[in-house]
Amino acid sequence: MDHSVNAGDEISTDFELGRCQRWRNQCGFWLLGLCNNFAYVVMLSAAHDILKQQESQNATVLTPGLLHSRSGNSSNSSRYDCNPVSTAAVLLADILPTLLIKSTAPFFIHKVPYGFRVLVCVATAMMSFFMVSFSTAVWMSIIGVIFASVSSGLGELSFLSLTVYFSSDVLSGWGSGTGGAGVAGALLYSAFTQAGLSPRVTLLIMLIIPAILLISYFVLLSFPPSFPQWRSGSGFSSGGDIQERRPLIDNDNDEDFVQDEKRREDQRTGPLTFSDKLDILKDLLKYTVPLCVVYFAEYFINQGLLELLFFPASSLSHAEQYRWYQTLYQIGVFISRSSLYCLKIRRIWVFPLLQCVNAVVLLLSVYYQFWPNVWLVFVMVLYEGLLGGAAYVNIFYLIRVKTGDREREFAMAAASVGDSIGIALSAAPAIPIHNYFCTL
């Protein structure tokens, strides 16, 4: 009886420890997602404010595309009351460093230990805050934008790869955290500046965010014993023990047999070759292409159309309407990126289809101006955010469950380039279409 009681106590203790570790890991990945995107959101807002301050101090005209305006609009003769420069112009400066990292790093990043990658993410995030807060020239603020983009891009592909070492529910935590970053970042930055703090002081306060990321990774996460924290290489690419396959009687002929077996075993479990990675990329197209199309349509709407959807009869000013567009979009993204806890959608083709329909409807609404009031556009923008966030988490969930152990870590990192390509490509039509409407 005593042995049964002891065994039951041990099972109960193991269960409690396992549940505690799962909660720690979910909370850890939620904070990693929040901090990875939060710093980028806040830094960009502050960069805009400081660039405006530098412009007024120097009384010079900045290079077109360097101002990321989310406040008022310069008056012009256009019936759309729009800026002469599209907000999509700065999008390329924001996304190109991330795109470069995501498109190249998966081929060599496995040689860099995870612990070192996190330190690089923290260092570049801190550099972005310092560069922008103490900038005395436009080029310093732009370098701050680049540092933030490097931190965000490297962090996203690294933490997505990191999820393969944990239970699948940490992906839900990561997705929810990244969705919450947009809402929390915008609200907290606005709250601090509205309270009277300068953008510089606000940015220095926000240095706590990289510190939280550091603590979340090194303290909060509960890593499996085999995790390669400070050494390169993947836990999924270690070769099997060929000695277990040796025959009992060893001779010269058997040596050839062992070499052949080892060669075949390495092909199945050895490190991924360049050719293997290219094959994986081809297989990932069914996931990365829908992700790319969703984000292309999404950012075409956000950076090319939303500024043009202005309702003069509304009690809200143009700047207030635009800020609400962005806020509702972020709320929609947060809700849907948190939905993986209770809902998983496998028919991912519906996301690019519906998002493209949104883009067409809003493009027509800009031209014909058939919306009776701004509230209907608010609903559309919230719906747009819901689609975008749901596409992100469900596509990466499918990649995780559909790929084999050996390919999964590389696949999660490589697929992250899909959204960045879509965002970068969206600037191509967004800028000329914005300029066309502004000349009407």
Entry summary:
The protein is an all-alpha fold. It is 71% helix and 0% strand. It has helices at 2-58, 89-104, 114-133, 138-162, 170-194, 199-205, 208-220, 252-269, 274-305, 318-337, 350-368, 374-402, 405-415, 417-438.
Question: Could you characterize what this model shows?
Answer:
There is one protein chain. By secondary structure, the chain is mostly helical. The chain is built from 14 helices and no strands. The chain has helices at residues 2-58, 89-104, 114-133, 138-162, 170-194, 199-205, 208-220, 252-269, 274-305, 318-337, 350-368, 374-402, 405-415, 417-438. The radius of gyration is 25 Å and the shape is globular. The chain starts with a helix and ends with a helix.
Secondary structural class: mainly alpha
Number of helices in the DSSP assignment = 14
Low-confidence segments: 59-75, 235-267
Total number of beta strands: 0
Biggest sheet: strands, sense, closure?
none
Distance between the termini: 87 Å
Anisotropy-based shape:
globular
Helix content: over 70%
Average predicted confidence as pLDDT = 80
**Whole-number radius of gyration?**
25 Å
Entry keywords:
440 residues; mainly alpha
Question: How are the secondary structure elements laid out?
Answer:
Layout lengths: L1 H57 L30 H16 L9 H20 L4 H25 L7 H25 L4 H7 L2 H13 L31 H18 L4 H32 L12 H20 L12 H19 L5 H29 L2 H11 L1 H22 L2
